[in-house]
Amino acid sequence: MSLKRISKILVVGGIVFSPMVKADMEYLKDVKGYLTAQCSLDSSMCESVLKAFNKAVTEKSGKRFKASMIRLSTSESITRLNTELGSSKKAAQRKCKNLKGQEFENCLNKTYKTRIDVLFGGTDGPYRGALEDNIFATYNYPNTGIHPWSAKLTEDSDNRLGAFYMGILGMAYNKNVLRAQKLTPPTGWADLGKSDYKDTIGVANANTSGTSYKYLSSMLTAFGSEDAGWERIVANHKNISQYTKSGSAPCKLVARGEMPICIGFMHDIANLAHNGAPIVGVAPAEGTLFEVGPVAIVLGSQNRKNAEAFAKFLYEPATQAALEEGGGRQFHVNVASKVPAGAPDIASVKLLDAPAKFGTKSFKKSVIDKWNTDIFPMKR
């Protein structure tokens, strides 16, 4: 699927509609018992989506239902799940080693023991890498009435991942702070390396944030070669005033006037501006990568049918409304969902497409290892 087509599909008035499944959500009638989710969106969005799901289930089933949620960054979420499944994986190596295909998955599903049923939200990179860990179950995610970027992730993952929103990486500045410091607003990634921006920029730490890895990947993709990308990363690093644990934290600092410039996702920036912060989003002139917000059902889920119902619910327009209520300005998977107020103009953004290797654990590790060894220790 070309990025040009993705852009066309997301522009208001330019939506290409696919056949829609009637959104009566009758499948929620059978939800009962429990559901435990790990969410990597901002906590307000996590809570809003879970609240909407609980309400919808209660209305359809006639019985009160309350799913529980643990909020973690994307990388932390994957690490926690792998740790919890540690002993189960050792048992599975003995029990399932001679099996293949569906028999192998069925064996894993019976052997794995976990309290977590489903993961959702955050950046797609850690989810893609975790496909190598055999922790996600196959599921027939919705494939009608959705945008192609969602279907592509499901296809690429052999039906182990769904995707319910799209977000674009960018940068932002506090116009009041920049004016006070007599700085010119940045227009692209290359600007961030200028000496004028010394100690002005915030971005997340690559060890804890999927957003940071998306930034590094954008640099390695946007400048024609990986070597040129690393040169830009070095130049920008010299102007970083703070590396945060969370990917959304730097732009919150900028919104409060505690820092002039940040790197983050445009939907988070748009929400801060929508709520009155003097923050201005910038789509980098050289181009930028985008994320798709995944959902994954966990192998060994003790509440599999509920997890499947929740995954399907994320594709409903009701989820877009819940995301927006929680401050989300992402582009939703469902073509019937409205483009959220304040969302960036997708037509004005140069979208890049990183090579497939960027989604592998080995390449991600090599990038983060190099950042830890060669970049982070450098004097700023």
Q: What would you report as the Rg, rounded to the nearest angstrom?
A: 21 Å
Q: Structurally, how many domains make up the residues? A: 2
**Quantity of strands, as a count:** 10
Q: Please tell me what the overall shape is.
A: globular
Q: How much of the polypeptide forms β-strand, as a percent range?
A: 5-15%
Helix run count: 15
The H/E string reads HEHEHHHEHHEHEHHEHEHEEHHEH
CATH topology of the largest domain: D-Maltodextrin-Binding Protein, domain 2
State the low-pLDDT regions, or none.
Answer: 1-22
Gross CATH architecture of the largest domain? 3-Layer(aba) Sandwich
What is the assigned CATH homologous superfamily of the largest domain?
Answer: Periplasmic binding protein-like II
Descriptive keywords:
single chain, 41% helix, D-Maltodextrin-Binding Protein, domain 2, 380 residues, alpha/beta
Describe this structure in words.
By secondary structure, this protein is α/β, with parallel strands linked by helices. The protein folds into two domains: 3-167 and 291-344, Periplasmic binding protein-like II (D-Maltodextrin-Binding Protein, domain 2, 3-Layer(aba) Sandwich); 168-289 and 362-375, Periplasmic binding protein-like II (D-Maltodextrin-Binding Protein, domain 2, 3-Layer(aba) Sandwich). The protein is built from 15 helices and ten strands. Residues 1-22 have low confidence and may be disordered.
What topology emerges from the helices and strands here?
Layout (H helix, E strand, L loop, with lengths): L2 H8 L25 E4 L3 H19 L6 E4 L2 H11 L1 H10 L5 H11 L6 E3 L3 H7 L17 H9 L5 E13 H6 L20 E4 L5 H13 L3 H12 L2 E5 L4 H7 L5 E5 H9 L4 E4 L7 E8 L6 H10 L3 H9 L5 E2 L28 H15 L5
Parallel strand pairs: 1-2, 1-3, 5-6, 5-7
Antiparallel strand pairs: 3-9, 4-7, 4-8, 4-9, 4-10
Helix pairs in contact: 2-14, 9-10
